[in-house]
Write a structure and sequence with these properties.
This protein has 230 residues and is an alpha/beta fold. It folds into two domains: 2-160, 3-Layer(aba) Sandwich (Rossmann fold); 174-226, no CATH class. It contains eight helices and nine strands.
Amino acid sequence: MRIGIISTYPPIECGIAAYTGYLTEALRNKGNQVYIISHLGASGKNVFPAFDYEDGDLAEKAFSATIRLTPDLVHIQHEFGLYGKHTGVSVIPLIMEFRLAGIRVCTTLHTVYPESPEQHRIILTAIVENADAIIVHEPYQLSTLRKIIKTKGQFKKIHLIPHGARELQPTEGAKAKLGIPETAKVALMIGYFRPTKGFERIIKLWPKVAEKYKENDVRLIIAGKVRNIQ
């Protein structure tokens, strides 16, 4: 199968870019031809940087670059900050263009919050109604979409597929390098920092967690980096 994936992609620093890198490798290992249509800055085998985050004609640029590759299926990796202004509304006409061209569209929704703002609900509803298939990674995302989407007939196209994680071996002496006792229990939050991720909520809630496990030495580590100017 010829698959066109629209997403950020390495060396762009983005969790979804890393995710798409692993997904691409897995799909190619199964014999698929995979092409990446990405934001400017991406590179690699069959990777085509075609648009930038704030392009007013993002949908047309992404569609034009993809359609030349004659894909059997287009897989869009969705997050609200990736597809233009106004909470990434350009993803909607992009999906519609593929549908009008007779190309099936699968969309993985990476950002579905139980308390989604109205702008998010509008875009999520439009994506679900117009894509051929939807993938989410967590049960709470599935239940959230069931509350947001008013047309029950759309539910059957939503699929729950666990996110998965790399298999990594523990780094010997890691706690000692950080000055943490070997017997301490560590909770780790890692990723790119931005205000919308709500890391401050964990800091506020942490005293309750520490109190619950007060018989142990528990530590919270928040590690990562800031992209651009946040």
